[in-house]
Amino acid sequence: MAGGTEPGGSSKSDEEWEQFLRESVAGAADAPKEPSARARAVTRRLREEPDRPPEGWRTYTPARPKRRTGWYVAGLLASVVLLVVALAPGWVMDLFPGTDSSPQAAETARPVEAPPTQPARRPTKDEPFRGSPAARWASGAAGITVPEAEAVGAMTASEVERALDRSRDFLVASSLDRGVLRGEHPDKAIALINPHQKDVQDFLGAAFRSPSEKNDPLRLFSRFQPSRVHLVGDVVKTRGRLTYEQGERGALQVTADVTFVYPVTPADAGGDDEIVRTIVRRELVLSWDDPDKVRTEPGTFSIVSYKNDMTNGGCGKPTGYFEPPFGTDHAAEGGGADIDPYDRSAPVGPGASAGDGCRRATRS
């Protein structure tokens, strides 16, 4: 049987044809093979990027981790800031003017404790209250809380309201009026006192005529001698409240408990003035009497009692004026008991005039 015919008429034997078929199926050792897909890709890349060496078959280069130097630096700086705040809070506060915190809510009842201690900060002319709790207090009459008026005894709610307003007017005229603070006679305040209350009228006459330990006008009025002391700015910080109840013989009895903070400087001071805060807490009990039962004048009250605590106001012989200690005098101020002038959690103690033992402020 013929195995096949080559072109040109030549033919192959059956053995040769069978061998050819076997090699075609098994593949000859030197027969050309089709390149793999990877080989084709590598060949193509070499043609396109002749200078780039080919990657290895199982080569893997992990991504380099990102350096976190920024986080370490930020953490270190934060630690330093916290350390500085802990060791020198006053210095840090000085970098940010007006950072004595937000205004304090009005006082409507006696507090249960003293206000927290503030970082020690030197007062300045622009911020005479910084570094003290008074920095958060209201100014002037706004710091004196007046309760809502209700009828008491024979007095209607409107009459009680009028008596409360005039009681506050007395505090303003006696302890906040700029003229009185500069040493003027407190005529407006005295006009609100029952002129028929003999013991009080005798006290007032003697106190302004010849001040003494017994008759000291500072028990009711705040006065500074302008030739020696100047007030810093136009603001006096205040904190306190009025309360009321029915008194004797149908009267309305009003109690005022208010602390006043006066920043002052020597009258002859130079550029970098020393500032001292004179702090006075007054507790007055006023009786708005029934004119049918007590001799009085319309729109006036009788004084039932008065007490005050005073610091940084002088410890010498009464002169009728506060005598704030400046310079070396300040270090020697106060030979009596220590007192926190901002602590309003307890009732007012005995008077702090020279005759009753001068108090030494634990802070001002």
Overview of this protein structure:
It is a single chain. With 364 residues, the chain is α+β, with helices and mostly antiparallel strands. It has a domain at 133-361. Helices cover 26% and strands 16% of the residues. The strands form two sheets. Strands 1, 2, 3, 4, 5, 6 and 7 form a seven-stranded mixed β-sheet that branches. A two-stranded parallel sheet has the order 8-9. A hairpin with a 5-residue loop joins β4 and β5.
Order of helices and strands: HHHHEEHHHHEEEEEHEE
Number of strands: 9
Radius of gyration, taken over Cα atoms and rounded to an integer in Å: 46 Å
- Which band does the percent of strand residues land in? 15-25%
- The percent range for helix content is 25-40%
Number of helices: 9
Look at the helices and sheets and give the structural class: alpha+beta
Major β-sheet profile: 7 strands, mixed
Distance between the termini: 132 Å
Low-confidence stretches: 1-7, 88-99, 351-356
Average of per-residue pLDDT values = 81
